[in-house]
Design goal:
The complex is a heterodimer of chains A (about 150) and B (about 280). Chain A is built from five helices and no strands. With about 150 residues, chain A is mostly helical. In chain B, about 75% of the residues lie in helices and about 0% in strands. Chain B contains eight helices and no strands. By secondary structure, chain B is mostly helical. The chains are: A mainly alpha (about 150), B mainly alpha (about 280). The interface between A and B is medium-sized, with 27 and 22 residues.
């Protein structure tokens, strides 16, 4: 396993190219086509996972930073603009931030970017809580829904 | 006629008394007759039951002697078998070649094979063309996965989905135009081979019957010692099939003619069931 995710992705893409060449040479009518499809599928999965690792490496720090910012902003707003109704939005945003802080990249292929989207939505909702009060919860909820939809299996 | 009414009455009474007496006599007579009849009948009944008991004893005796006879026959059969009597050989068939048997098997396979109707063949061809097109697209999609920049996520998703469309599907079997023709040839070759082999087997069984040869034990077990009267042709037909079944399916048991019943459905099971039924019919007394 190459240490650099970029190098690993390039590596995987290279071996996928080799597998695809064999698949194309065989053609759909040949008897070992199903075996080749299975082998190529393994290569494709490996490429997708390698890409996820690249994304994870790229997005871990921004996700953590946004989650920290969201938590800090929620605290400041809870104290400075205290309102019982707004607390709902702030609590949900803090919960999302906690989840992203614990695991900023996730495991499924599309997790890293989906988490970025969710935590960004939480940050926006937190910042909009003073004017929108509890209604800002909807923005966080939309972010979480997006996240769940993207990473569904 | 008496003029005195008293006298007349007396005369009447006298007449009536006489009538009464006659009646009494007749009644007595009939009673005696009835008693006599009853006696005769009971005597007859006793006679009959005595006769019945005697017959019963005789039947018991006869049954015992039949049983003795049966045992004697079995012993005799064994002795005859052990002796020099010529035996019919239904085990070795040097004149029937393996190729003939192979032809029969091919014919049976051809009969069992599913036939494509022209419409089905057309649909299958269409499905294959569709699969090939999808496979081409999927390969193109996978090709693009090899050079996409890692942050073009929507493209990655799209191509990955396109690739997955092919991995879960299976390309249908190509309908072969020649299959039908080849099957027809195999079927007729199999039928001819069966006809030839049946003739050979039947000839040998008929020879054995004509020469009063001893049948093998398995043969007598299923088909009885001889053809039932009046049904010789049917019996010969079934006997030929039993021998052919043993030959085709390599049954070598010396006692069990048809061997164990096959598990899976198909020609063999159908034949086995048919032969079992027919043979049971011939063994009925």
């Amino acid at each position: 396993m190459a240490a650099d995710p970029f190098a690993r992705l390039a590596d995987r893409q290279q071996s996928l190219r080799t597998a695809l060449r064999a698949l194309q040479a065989a053609g759909p009518g040949s008897p070992d086509f199903p075996t080749l499809i299975a082998r190529t599928n393994d290569e494709v999965e490996a490429v997708i996972n390698a890409r996820r690792d690249v994304e994870a490496a790229r997005l871990t720090t921004p996700n953590r930073a946004i989650a920290t910012a969201t938590t800090a902003a929620a605290l400041i707003i809870a104290v400075g603009w205290f309102d019982a109704w707004s607390l709902l939005s702030l609590l949900l945003a803090t919960a999302t931030a906690a989840a992203v802080l614990v695991d900023p990249a996730g495991r499924t292929p599309w997790d890293p970017r989906a988490r970025t989207a969710a935590i960004t939505a939480a940050l926006v909702a937190t910042l909009l809580t003073p004017p929108l009060n509890g209604w800002a919860t909807l923005i966080t909820a939309a972010g979480i829904a997006w996240w769940a939809w993207r990473t569904r299996t | 006629m008496n003029i005195d009414p008293l006298k007349a009455l007396e005369a009447k009474v006298e007449r009536l008394k006489k009538d009464l007496k006659t009646l009494e006599t007749r009644l007595e007579n009939s009673q005696t007759d009835a008693a006599h009849n009853q006696l005769t009948q009971s005597n007859q009944l006793k006679d009959t039951s005595r006769k019945l008991a005697k017959t019963n004893d005789r039947v018991t005796d006869l049954a015992e002697s039949v049983h003795r006879l049966e045992r004697l026959l079995v012993a005799l059969n064994r002795k005859v078998r052990a002796g020099e009597t010529r035996k019919a050989d239904f085990e070795n068939w040097p004149e029937i070649e393996k190729e003939e048997l192979a032809k029969i098997f091919h014919g049976q396979e051809a009969y069992a094979r599913r036939k494509f109707t022209p419409q089905e063949a057309k649909d299958t061809r269409k499905a294959i063309a569709e699969y090939d097109r999808k496979a081409h697209e999927a390969i193109e999609a996978a090709e693009s996965l090899t050079h996409l920049p890692p942050n073009a996520e929507s493209l990655w998703r799209k191509h990955y989905k396109q690739w997955n469309a092919i991995t879960t599907r299976v390309r249908p079997e190509v309908p072969d135009d020649d299959t039908h023709a080849r099957d027809t040839v195999a079927k007729s070759a199999g039928n001819e081979a069966i006809k030839r082999i049946r003739q050979q087997i039947r000839a040998r069984i008929e020879d054995a019957v004509a020469g009063d040869l001893l049948f093998p034990a398995w043969f007598e077990n299923v088909l009885g010692p001889a053809a039932p009267p009046g049904r010789a042709d049917d019996w010969l037909y079934t006997a030929t099939d039993v021998v052919l079944y043993r030959l085709l399916h390599d049954v070598t048991s010396p006692a069990d003619a048809l061997g164990p019943a096959p598990e899976e459905e198909g020609h063999r099971k159908t034949l086995h069931d048919r032969l079992t039924n027919e043979c049971a019919e011939y063994r009925k007394p």
